[in-house]
Amino acid sequence: MELTDYYQILELPASASMEEIKKSYRRMALAYHPDKNAGDPYAAAQFAVVKEAYETLTDPIRRNQYLQDRWLAKASGKPKPKSVLNPETLLRQMIAKERAVAMMDNHRMNKDGLLDELLRIFNGEAIGMLNDFGDLSINSQIVRLAIRSSAALGFAGRSRLYEQLLRINAEPSVAQEIKRSLNSRLNSERWDRAKIWLLLFVVTAICALIFMVSR
């Protein structure tokens, strides 16, 4: 399981003192408190993680365990602790992913690796988060970026990914885009298989013609 970067959440360096942690928490808790941001899901989510970060870093036992896990993750070469997950951070992540995939060579691309990565991004937690926030515009942008990022995947791979994407509440047109993308890939693969049989038929016909002429 990925670690959450509590220092980043509180906008502090890892060397921050206890007084700095408390000061930053008071400032951010005041800014994101539900009483000041009624009905704002972004503020509510941010307030929750700020509170979690503060409670972890000010409790000696939890802080020591967190710092140990953080050190072990760094020593083993694991990815950096993740930042707060919300629709905007996921949108930025997918913009970067779509650009990176667009620069890859389709013939050399690790398609299984790409599929695994996209499935990890669109796990149950992420889908639930997007639906809880309910921002159909951002959700639709995220799904469309995922569709473009999956352009190199085969029908089977797209089917697995799109099954997850269809669980995301988005604009009505997005479901049709998913269906068109899947059907396009299916038709493409059918045509590729048909071309092989067509080629075999042509070669067989030419061989038969040569045999008949040579008799």
Report the portion of residues in β strands: under 5%
**How are helices and strands ordered from N to C?**
HHHHHHHHHH
**What separation lies between the terminal Cα atoms?**
73 Å
How many β-strand stretches? 0
The total domain count is 2
Helix content: over 70%
The largest sheet is: none
Compute the CA-based radius of gyration.
25 Å
Shape: elongated
Total number of helices = 10
**Helix/sheet category:** mainly alpha
Q: Give the overall pLDDT as a whole number.
A: 85
Q: Identify low-pLDDT runs.
A: none
Could you explain how this protein is built, in words?
The chain has 215 residues and is mostly helical. The chain folds into 2 domains: 6-75, Orthogonal Bundle (Helix Hairpins), CATH 1.10.287; 87-190, no CATH class. It is built from 10 helices and no strands. The chain has helices at residues 6-9, 18-32, 41-58, 60-75, 87-102, 111-121, 124-133, 136-149, 155-165, 172-214. Helix 3 crosses helix 4 (60-75). The protein is elongated and about 100 Å long. The chain starts with 5 loop residues before the first helix and ends with a helix. The relative contact order is 0.08. The mean pLDDT is 85.
Per-chain topology:
Elements: H1 6-9, H2 18-32, H3 41-58, H4 60-75, H5 87-102, H6 111-121, H7 124-133, H8 136-149, H9 155-165, H10 172-214
